[in-house]
Hints:
Blueprint: E1 5-8, E2 11-14, E3 29-31, E4 33-39, H1 45-58, E5 63-67, H2 73-80, E6 95-99, H3 101-106, H4 109-123, E7 127-131, H5 136-139, H6 144-157, E8 161-167, H7 176-181, E9 184-193, E10 196-206, E11 216-221, E12 225-228
Parallel strand pairs: 4-8, 4-9, 5-6, 5-7, 7-8
Antiparallel strand pairs: 1-2, 2-3, 9-10, 10-11, 11-12
Helix pairs in contact: 4-6
Amino acid sequence: xxxxxxxxxxxxxxxxxxxxxxxxxxxxxxxxxxxxxxxxxxxxxxxxxxxxxxxxxxxxxxxxxxxxxxxxxxxxxxxxxxxxxxxxxxxxxxxxxxxxxxxxxxxxxxxxxxxxxxxxxxxxxxxxxxxxxxxxxxxxxxxxxxxxxxxxxxxxxxxxxxxxxxxxxxxxxxxxxxxxxxxxxxxxxxxxxxxxxxxxxxxxxxxxxxxxxxxxxxxxxxxxxxxxxxxxx
Length: 233
Ligand SMILES: Nc1ncnc2c1ncn2[C@@H]1O[C@H](COP(=O)(O)OP(=O)(O)O)[C@@H](O)[C@H]1O
Ligand SMILES: [Mg+2]
């Protein structure tokens, strides 16, 4: 379990598995912490989260993937396993999959938190993903901010690094409500330049970390998922 970790300062960190990213954040994501990966549709949030979980699985760290989209396991796996780094056999034990779609529509926020915490206690993961977290905003009107506050506080009490993804409308950078509650924010962006669609990553904040502040080009491919390119453009 020490293999996936590196030490910078006094913080334990988990490697992201994303080539080029860890060197931007002093070796990895603080453990424990809650980090928001934000971007418009198609910028690579789910790819990022899957890479983070499979990296953990390769190092003997358990993963727990909560989705909020009412997606059956087989459906999620059909897409995820298009990536070469995703071995479907990892799902079930090394990475536990739990869809919250139905519960979100039917349960009170406190009930939702209880269900999530029960699952975390059962699985005891080092890596947790909630993808996408932002859909809860539409369902928990009024309670959303206090729910996010409770959720992130409780997540920090478990020994895990949690990635939450936030989908934003084109042109917006990140969901403001979520950004208040998290320890780190990684932005994924897309822009149209000379007819080509280019993708970028930027570390907006990372508590306890002297992170790089510049925008880096990224590539998304079947072999590695997301790769941070060395040159700026
Ligand atoms: N298996 C794959 N091989 C290559 N590119 C892919 C693959 N799967 C997804 N992509 C590319 O990555 C983009 C981002 O996908 P995704 O991570 O699902 O974005 P988000 O979760 O932010 O909506 C897709 O729109 C597609 O262009
Ligand atoms: Mg997604």
